[in-house]
Amino acid sequence: MAHIQLRNIKKHYGQTEVLKGIDLEINDREFVTFVGPSGCGKSTLLRMISGLEEPSSGTIFIDGEDVTREAPADRGIAMVFQSYALYPQMTVWENMAFALNIDKQPKDKVKEKVELAGKMLKLDHLFDRLPKALSGGQRQRVAIGRAIVRNPKLFLFDEPLSNLDAELRVDMRIQIAELHRSLSASMVYVTHDQVEAMTLADKIVVLRDGRIEQVGAPLDLYYHP
Ligand code: ADP
Ligand code: ADP
Fold first, then answer.
1. Ligand 2: residue whose CA is nearest its atom 22
2. Secondary structure of the chain: what % helix, strand, coil (to 5)?
3. By the 8 A CB rule, do 127 and 91 touch?
4. What is the average pLDDT across 214-220?
5. Which tens digits make up the pLDDT trace of 164-212?
6. Which of 129, 133, 149, 152 is nearest to 62 (CA)?
7. Is 38 a pocket residue for ligand 1 (Cβ < 6 Å)?
8. For the sheet containing 211-216, what is the strand order?
9. H helical segments located in 103-165
10. Do 121 and 141 form a contact (C-beta atoms < 8 A)?
11. Does ligand 1 have an atom closer than 6 angstroms to the CB of 191?
12. Tell me: the pLDDT tens digits for 139-160?
């Protein structure tokens, strides 16, 4: 269950106002994509939701609770970035188990969660590999696996596929859509790729110059970048 409400979110860096009053609702289990020209504020808005940065003003509610000043770790959110940021000296298994071990979860629980995520992401034959021995798509799947094992109620993706070649992007897009169907989580997904935005989203948010220009279901929008 994750229901997100953004109320009049503004963000400025020095004199520059990057977000100019964002009001947005993300429903439980909804898949929302953020699109818009480079520099329009997509990543900044994602960082506000994640808690990596605080807005200059405005309020963020998750499941009715004001989390505007809460740390990222307290929001039940997982972020997946385009740079995979895997630990290079750890195997796939260790990368995926790491956060759970830090959290002192029981060994059998950790095993169960990593095995399940490994199956979902077709990584189970790669558990003993180091990241350097993986393809780009496999690394991206490990990054998603690390997020999944923590059962987040909300996933934030910041252009997760933009480093992959065209064919892999299509594969991964299908896998992310499958994950969304099988996990009971909401997803917010920033992308430059119009096809990704259209095929994944329940709702597309078009940003322009720090404001929401349009919001709607893919078929109700005509998006021209
Ligand atoms: P997008 O993700 O849509 O490409 P960003 O959210 O990354 O856009 O950036 C929006 C604007 O905010 C850009 O003009 C960018 O230069 C500016 N910006 C982002 N982060 C900072 C920062 N930490 N300090 C100053 N300006 C920033
Ligand atoms: P430790 O460092 O205490 O040995 P590990 O993280 O290596 O802990 O292993 C914890 C559990 O995870 C063990 O029960 C082991 O069976 C399982 N495990 C570790 N690596 C793998 C793997 N590559 N494939 C399947 N299970 C694994």
1. 127
2. 35, 25, 35
3. yes
4. 91
5. 888 888 888 998 999 999 888 999 999 988 889 999 999 999 999 999 9
6. 152
7. yes
8. 77-81, 154-158, 186-190, 31-35, 203-208, 211-216
9. 107-120, 136-148
10. yes
11. no
12. 989 999 999 998 899 999 999 8
Amino acid at 101: N
Distance CA 178, CA 135 (A): 21
Name the residue at shortest CA distance from atom 13 of ligand 2: 111
- Contact between 120 and 96 (Cβ < 8 Å): no
Which residue, judged by its Cα, is nearest atom 16 of ligand 2? 111
Q: Is the CB of 18 under 6 A from ligand 1?
A: yes
Is residue 206 in contact with ligand 1, taking CB distance under 6 Å? no
DSSP letter (8 states) at residue 68: T
In this prediction, the answer to ipTM > 0.85 reads no
pLDDT value of position 225: 55
40 alpha carbon to ligand 1 midpoint, in Å? 8
Identify the residue whose tokens are 């740390």. 71
Cα(80) to ligand 2 centroid in Å equals 24
